[in-house]
What does this fold into?
Amino acid sequence: MADKKTQTQNSNNAMALLSYLGILFIIPMLTSKDDPFVKFHIKQGLVLFIFELVLMFVNVIPILGQLVWLVGMITSLVLAITGIMNALAGTQKELPLIGKYAAKFNF
It folds into this structure.
């Protein structure tokens, strides 16, 4: 019985981890959005993805935009690693700086 619960938790952690890998947040959104743990991480990953999209548009601006893009992408990498660590640990911690915006999504 404990093995089945462990397998389910590992599956949930894997789905939550996918939420932080760019556009791959769509996979858990389509398959596991009924699970509150995975849903939390989907929303965090969605906010991170939107942040990265905004950075891509900022990158078009010569020099200053490219500098902002570089700093933003490094920040995005740190946030993704933080989210992945939280997902693998089984915790629901908001991402620093941008995590508070995830609560605005309702699905």
Summary: The chain has one domain: 2-21+33-104. The two ends are 32 Å apart (CA to CA). The longest helix spans residues 64-89.
